[in-house]
Amino acid sequence: MIRRRSHPEASLSARRTEAFTDGVFAIAATLLVLGLTDQSLGTIRTNDDLAAGLVGLAHPVFSFVISFLLLCLMWMTHVRQFEYIARIDALGMWINSFRLLLVVLVPFTSSLNTTYDDLLLGRVLLPVNFFLAILLGWIQWVWAARSGAIPDLSRDDARRMGRAGFSAVVLGLVAMALSPMIGSMAFLVFLFDGLLTRILRGGNDLAAPADAARAPDPGGDVEGRG
């Protein structure tokens, strides 16, 4: 077991964590489509029957598209974070692991949302799932900023990115609050993510890293990113 000491002595390269996280997101996004294959089109004898059956899948398809796009949004946040996170310690790995636990639950809660949309619990479980996963993604950045895991980013820029990432937390909370009334339609609040991100970030560009001109080491590994 890794004993927690000061960073980076108790840390490892973040590249394997990054690759593992990419794989989990890809699998979770792929499994979402199984919720559609479980839906019945009824008895199909004519083109009209097939068209009516496909129209009846409007809500499952909407839930699938929304869940897929939100997973993509979370993955893009992960990509942006690990452009700067060079090393990771035991606490960082645990935070990431619990976030991935919530990510792999998304296909399950998405299927519950589709099947039991008429029940309160069926409508709220998916928004709660996404909110907790997004919250842990933001907490991971807070950990990185405080632990010294992002050596190529100034403290001010790290804080700006943290504020920008908090936009998804706010919108996830709003979606969770609205879901008992309007179900999956509550996720449409994420259409405002870009605007809220710019407002919270307070600027468009990050400052250039202080050591951007540093040459890579002979082994091709820069600050453990490989």
SSE blueprint and pairings:
Elements: E1 12-13, H1 15-31, H2 34-37, H3 47-55, H4 58-82, E2 87-88, H5 90-115, H6 120-147, H7 155-182, H8 193-201
Antiparallel strand pairs: 1-2
Could you explain how this protein is built, in words?
The protein has 226 residues and is mostly helical. It has eight helices and two strands; from the N terminus they run βααααβαααα. It has helices at 15-31, 34-37, 47-55, 58-82, 90-115, 120-147, 155-182, 193-201; strands at 12-13, 87-88. It has a two-stranded antiparallel sheet with strand order 1-2. The two termini are 24 Å apart.
Keywords, separated by commas or semicolons:
about 230 residues, mainly alpha, two-stranded antiparallel ribbon, 8 helices, elongated
Q: What are the low-pLDDT stretches, counting only 5+ consecutive residues below 50?
A: 1-6, 208-226
Net shape: elongated
Head-to-tail CA distance between termini: 24 Å
The SS-based structural class is: mainly alpha
Work out the helicity level.
55-70%
Rg: 20 Å
- Strand order, main sheet: write it out: 1-2
Main pleated-sheet profile: 2 strands, antiparallel
β-strand percent reads under 5%
Mean pLDDT over the full residue set: 83
Total beta-strand segments? 2
Count of helices? 8
Q: What's the order of the H and E elements?
A: EHHHHEHHHH
